[in-house]
Write a structure and sequence with these properties.
- By secondary structure, the protein is of the alpha/beta class.
- It is built from 13 helices and 14 strands.
- It has two domains: about 60 residues, DNA polymerase, domain 1, CATH 1.10.150; about 280 residues, Alpha-Beta Barrel (TIM Barrel), CATH 3.20.20.70.
- Helix 7 packs parallel to helix 9.
- The chain starts with a strand and ends with a helix.
- The C terminus is likely disordered.
- Bound molecules: iron/sulfur cluster.
- The site of iron/sulfur cluster (SF4) has 13 residues, from helix 4.
- Iron/sulfur cluster binds next to helix 4.
């Protein structure tokens, strides 16, 4: 008998499931509470459930979808990368990033990624499949169990994969993270980072979830962005900006633009002008991110020509944007020494 992954359920679906098992609805809340508050992944520990139900759940459902294969600490800046294996022997990863008072967990939503961005190690892996809701939430629950539930203060969907191409599972995972019953994370501490899928940006705006959204922009010009991110040939910068304006209006949130600093590609004065023109059209801020080189992956073609902008140029770039009243943050490389850029640990294992 194929077992059901119980973590694939939102609370609403779990209610339906326990009713199917002939149980009262409040059993769903008890189970949810064990999973998300007590971080218990063993039905035998769920002592307020009748023994017969615990046995039935053990027979019919899986309580854990992932296993931790490897943990890699970055001694330089304190990040920790988790490599997980799925039941079908794929590998995915999540990264814990402490920054002052907050600790952010960066989650994956797909095994590999179909979008093939030229600066990204995950893009080089190709695409295998979408993750299930259970596999997304288990990245959080397993790391929360290691660190303590209240340690993780923020979640970003910025690991392997494009979350808006796994839309349903991503929003159901967010529903579980933010469920009031579990005293979960607040919505403004969750960020969905996308390469830009306009219809799904609008759908997320209409979902009522009101999480934050970040666009991986990396160039204000379509011809350059087409080379960096092939998805731009399908969904142009302008289409994404229109969708993001809708998102900002509908959710009253500020949009984040992620911008990897690439030497000679997107760090010129004309890029400052173009970026200021685009981002001043909506409430927004820009994160400038030093590029984690992927040279060790031996990329070919255009990807092979990418190298990090010098630190001084990143600072000047930020100053020029600030002079135009644009809000700019300079981000860390977040673990170059443990390959914290998305996909790199998993792909190193494969090579
Ligand atoms: S940057 Fe994100 S969207 Fe682009 S290939 Fe990598 S994982 Fe996919």
């Amino acid at each position: 008998m194929t077992k059901t992954d119980i973590k694939n359920f939102t609370l609403e679906k779990l209610l339906d499931y326990v009713v199917e098992l002939g149980q009262p609805k409040y059993r769903a809340e008890q189970i949810f509470n064990w999973l998300y508050n007590h971080l218990s992944f063993d039905f035998n520990e769920m002592e307020n459930l009748p023994k017969s139900l615990r046995m039935e759940l053990s027979q019919k459902t899986n309580v854990q979808t992932l296993n931790i294969v490897r943990k890699l600490d970055s001694p330089l800046i304190g990040t920790t990368k988790f490599l997980f294996s799925t039941k079908d022997n794929n590998e995915i990863e999540a990264v814990i990033i402490p920054e002052g008072k907050r600790t952010t967990l960066c989650l994956s939503t797909q095994v590999g990624c179909p979008l093939n961005c030229k600066f990204c190690a995950t893009g080089l892996m190709g695409f295998t499949r979408n993750l299930t809701v259970g596999e997304i939430v288990d990245q959080y629950l397993l790391t929360a169990r290691e660190y303590g539930k209240n340690t993780i203060t923020n979640i970003v969907f910025m690991g392997m994969g494009e979350p808006l191409l796994n839309y349903r599972a991503t929003i159901e995972a967010i529903e579980n993270f933010t469920n009031e019953l579990t005293k979960g994370l607040s919505r403004n501490r969750i960020t969905v980072s996308t390469a830009g899928i306009p219809d799904k940006i609008r759908a997320l705006a209409d979902s009522g979830l009101r999480v934050k959204i970040a666009l991986s922009l990396h160039s204000p010009f379509n011809d350059v962005r087409n080379k960096l991110m092939p998805v731009n040939k399908k969904y142009s910068i302008e289409e994404n900006i229109e969708a993001l304006k809708y998102y900002a209006r509908k959710t009253r949130t500020r949009i984040t633009f992620e911008y990897l600093m690439l030497d000679g590609i997107n760090d010129r004065d004309e890029d400052v002008q173009g970026l200021a023109h685009l981002t001043s059209q909506l409430p927004s801020k820009i994160n400038l991110i030093p590029f984690n080189s992927i040279a060790h992956m031996n990329p070919g073609g255009f990807a092979a020509s990418l190298s990090p902008s010098p630190i001084e140029r990143i600072s000047e770039f930020a100053d020029k944007l600030r002079a135009k009243n644009i809000t700019v943050m300079l981000r860390n490389t977040q673990g170059n020494d443990i390959a914290a850029a998305c996909g790199q640990l998993a792909i190193q294992k494969k090579l």
